[in-house]
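#struct-help
A.M.: can someone run this one for me? Single chain, 367 residues.
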Amino acid sequence: MLTAGIVGLPNVGKSTLFNAVTQTRKALASNYRFSTVEPNTGVVTVPDARLDVLTKMSKSLKTVPAAFEFVDIAGLAAGASQGGGLGNKFLGHIREVDAIIQVVRCFENSNIEHVMDTLDPVRDIEVINTELVLADLESVEKRKTKQQKAAKSGDKKIVHEVELLERLAAHLNTGKTVITMEVAPEEKAMVKGFFLLTAKPTLFACNIAEGDLAHADDNTLVRQVRDYAAKHHDTRAVVVSAEIESELVTLSAEERAEYLAGLGVADTGVPNLIREAYYLLGLRTYLTTGEKESRAWTIHAGDKAPQAAGVIHSDFEKSFISAEVVAFDDLAAAGSFARARVLGKLRTEGKEYVVADGDVIEFKTYV
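D.P.: on it. Structure tokens below:
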């Protein structure tokens, strides 16, 4: 199962957000630095309104959403790349995740200490990025030194690797992250094999105060983070209020809706964060439905029909014949498979079909 790691400076709301996202109280949320030492891990279900529609349409007995893992990682401090604070542990844990959710504090609260003393989310992001870049630079230089000796043999593959490492070092020395560096398609696998921190896809989560949620788009700090994320990481920044979500964990669906309505919002931003993280990991969903269950199945973007069938059972990929496919929107509009077939929306696809997010599929196999 792929994992998204929640990172950030101490006291930005990482553990509170982790508890909110996983609907647990596993992570200690305290007003002191490094309250998280060992990472907490929790499985997160992906909100998907399409499942509710299919469950109702098929009168399914069970609804099964897609899921992936979130990891709450210790807070980072300046000097982490040289082992400062919990730097060595932090960097070790972040190497193990597949994507990064960087939580940025965008709220004022005199009762919660700020590790940098003043509120400046862009500066906070740059503190973390600097430490990750420095750690990557050290890793690249060490590997380059080792491979330069091996390259004397004339092995073309090793020579190419050394050239790539030299380019990476030059890029990192400008303070830029690896993920922003242009590499040839055949070099992407090589870069992935270096296990560099800044090569991981990143999403920013602007953690705001309860009173700011209804007008988040007007928040100056949020706009700053969104602009920085787009310009320097070519990625997005989403808005969440971990404080509100943590208060809603024990409430019923009706009580949650009433509480949020009083704040003038539909949700706390956490459902959107989960969906964005899911996409950040390169994950997509196809759906199956019937009287027994309606289920969301997780695949990777670009997977073809046999691979998607293999998610249900490995034998299905080997014995794949064809797939009956209808886009969710077309099926929902038709109201049934029979009607979708009459309208020409249900089609048969073969082995080369690339499954789209939201496809509703029934596979035909030899099994």
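A.M.: thanks! The radius of gyration is 23 Å.
D.P.: also worth noting: The mean pLDDT is 88.
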